[in-house]
What does this fold into?
Amino acid sequence: MTGAGTTGKRRAIQRGVGVALWRQIADDIRGGLAAGTLAGAEGRLPPEAALAERFGVNRHTVRAAIAALAHEGVLHPVHGRGTFARRQKRLVYPIGERTRFSTGLGSQARERHTDIFAGVQESASTEIAKALGLEAGSKVIRVEARGSADGVPVSRATSWFDAQRFPTIAEAYADAGSLSAALRKFGVEDYLRASTRIEARHADEADARDLRLSPGAVVIVTHAINVDMKGDPFQYSRTRFPADRVELVVESQGKTTVD
Amino acid sequence: MTGAGTTGKRRAIQRGVGVALWRQIADDIRGGLAAGTLAGAEGRLPPEAALAERFGVNRHTVRAAIAALAHEGVLHPVHGRGTFARRQKRLVYPIGERTRFSTGLGSQARERHTDIFAGVQESASTEIAKALGLEAGSKVIRVEARGSADGVPVSRATSWFDAQRFPTIAEAYADAGSLSAALRKFGVEDYLRASTRIEARHADEADARDLRLSPGAVVIVTHAINVDMKGDPFQYSRTRFPADRVELVVESQGKTTVD
DNA sequence: TCGAGTTGTATAGATCAATAGACAATGAAA
DNA sequence: TTTCATTGTCTATTGATCTATACAACTCGA
It folds into this structure.
């Protein structure tokens, strides 16, 4: 490898595949930032002309890509100086028996918080009823939450709880700011993650809105069931993560993290 | 909504986002087939005119999407009769302490096999050396494998083994057809999955080639470490899954599936 | 102050993506 | 056979995307 030029192994952009070049370049730059292979320590991108040459396109095409990422909040170009990146590496989100939302992200971000949108009561769909071990049509409470790190959304969760057992879970969650604390008010001292189903897909309109993504981005979706210490499921949740800001790590205990 | 029409929750294609409408529609149809929400029991798609109306585009645009999927092998249109789908639902790939490649897919597919490409010896990168607990630059064996179900690729794995401990692992794997059997020849009677890191991204050119994907498709990538019963890591592997053919399920043992 | 390096703006032409409408060709059922 | 539903082909038009070239505006260090 001879210095500048190729810098990496990344994908070459492809013509005539139904994805505009500027979007492919935007996705590639975003990925490069997430992987940490682009942009120096000061977070400065190579100049537009260099990027244009690297990707084999006109400078205007690179500019269109940068404009999209700037609108997304990932880059911010400064007239006469250069284009700068906001965050660099992906957050690591651990998954295991002891998975907690609030912990785990630990010290990876400077600032981190969770917005909870008031829960609403609704009738359980068959899928949710089955996951929670309830009769189809039982009343459940749906709680919407969004996690952010350094002001950027990194997760968007929708959770369902049995309305009989946890009638005011949404308020308790919002007050306490943490699910574990809210659950203690209902006598759940501890709990385990029983199963997590993971899929990935393109961001749809809702994802683009909730996670501030541009369409074409990739989201990871997890479907999780938490059980109390008696083994009864009490929470079913679907969480969407932006794939270029977050990665998941599954730790089997007994080996690595013994806790 | 009366019967046919909307069928699902997905939809809403977006204009002016740098992704051609025909590609969004192609991705949506593929996803719909994977989720099983499109196409009736005989695997027949709604007619082009109906799809055009549903997506709010011209029939030619739908035709472009179908042409792409036909080229990909997902659909096959028949003059005068209709357009037919090949496979329907996603495979479920379990992940946990007892994760094995060969098992788990079980009876989900009619036919299933693994191609193993002869392993090559190479020097460990720092990442691989660290994962295997070796000195950087140690000799390791790289084994490439591809899993298929019903003739369609569903996984593409690259694994590394310590060359000292497993000098002929590639041949043993290829002969036995199963990793567990190959490992027994080297005295590894049993092993556990210690950790699995999961990320998702767009398919690159290599993915498109290896997994027969069209660009714009989504792949899930796992980075896994297997340890023997003494807790020593002996295998590091990266596996790529096409996200519309496979989903992952993490089962914490002790709760749901006990073995 | 000057010049090199950078991002911002403008204009024009070429190619791709999407629409519109019309009709041909095939398969299946009345 | 006739009719209908379906996929296949053709032509023309509009707008989005990409290229090419030029120059303006801004920052920073010599």
